Amino acid sequence: MHNLLNFLAKYSYWFLFLVLEAISFVLLFQFNSYQGSVWFTSANAVSGKVYEQSAKVKSYFQLETINEELTKENLYLAHRLQLLNAQKEDSIADSLAHASALLQHLSPYKLIPAKIVHASLNKRDNLLTIDKGARDGVKRDMGVVCGTGVVGIVYLTSNHYSVVIPVLSSQSSISCVIENRGYFGYLHWTGGDICRAFVDDIPRHAHFRLYENVVTSGYSSVFPAGIPVGKILHVYNSPDQMSYRLQLQLSTNFGTLRDVFVVDNSAFAEQIDILRAAEDSMRVKNGGEKQ
C-alpha cells in the first residue's frame, strides 16, 4: 500500500494532466459543432470496426451451430435431388416404354427415321421440315409419327427434305376414334395452345369419359389404326347441337419434338385400292344384271 501511495505521489502530475486532457477533449467536442462532427464520424468508424470484429468473433464461436444447420440443409437438398432424379428417370422410362410400345405396334410397316430441321409453332398454319426426302422413300401423304403419337402428314418432298403439315395447322384433318369405344371424328387445331386440339363430329349418342384416350381410326391409308392422338379434357356441344366437340391434351409435345418416323403405309394403301376396285366392279356387275 505504501508503494502504491509513493507511485501516485511521484506521478501525480501526469495523472492530473491526463484528467485535464480528457476534460478538455469533452468540452472541445461537446461545444464545438465541427469538432463534434469529426468525433462522431471517427467514433462511427471505430465502432463499425469494433462491431465487425465482434461479429467475426461471434461467427467463429457459432461455427458449430452453423455447420449443423448446413449439414441438415445439405441432407434435405440431397434428398430432394434424389427424388427429382427418380421422377426424371421414371418419366424417361415411361417415355421409352410408350415409344417402344408404339414402335412395336407399327412393326408391320416400314418406318423411315427423320429429324426435324425446321419448325414453326406460332402460326395458324404451321409447317415442319424433316431431313428425309424422295430418295429416302418419303412420299406425299405419308403419315409422320413420334414416340408418343401423331405428328402430321407429308405435304411436299424434294430429294433430301420433306415438308410436313403437322397437327398444329388449320389445314390438318385426321380421322380418329375414342379408344375401345369406336366413336370417330376428325382432329382439328384452331390455333393458340400447342398442347391442345379438338375432335369434332362425335355423335350425340356416344358414351365415354374424360381422360379416355383418342387414337387414329385407320379409316384412311395415311395412319394405321391405334396411334395415340391425345386424352379427352373437356366436352362441348357443336355449334349446331347435333354432335359433340372434344378438347384433347395432345400426346405429342411439339415444343420439344426432334425425332420422328415417316410411316410407309403403301402396302395398306394398295390393299384399299384393290378393295375399292373390287367394290366398283361389283357395282358395275350388279348394274348389268339388273338391266
UniProtKB/TrEMBL annotation:
TM region positions: 12-31
Entry's Gene Ontology cellular component terms: plasma membrane
Cited InterPro entries: Cell/Rod_1, Cell/Rod_MreC_2, MreC, MreC_beta-barrel_core
Record domain Rod shape-determining protein MreC beta-barrel core: where: 116-263
A Pfam match: MreC
Coiled-coil boundaries: none
NADP as UniProt keyword: no
BP terms from Gene Ontology: regulation of cell shape
Keywords associated with the record: Cell shape, Membrane, Transmembrane, Transmembrane helix
Family, similarity comment: Belongs to the MreC family.
Protein name: Cell shape-determining protein MreC
Species for this entry: Segatella oulorum F0390
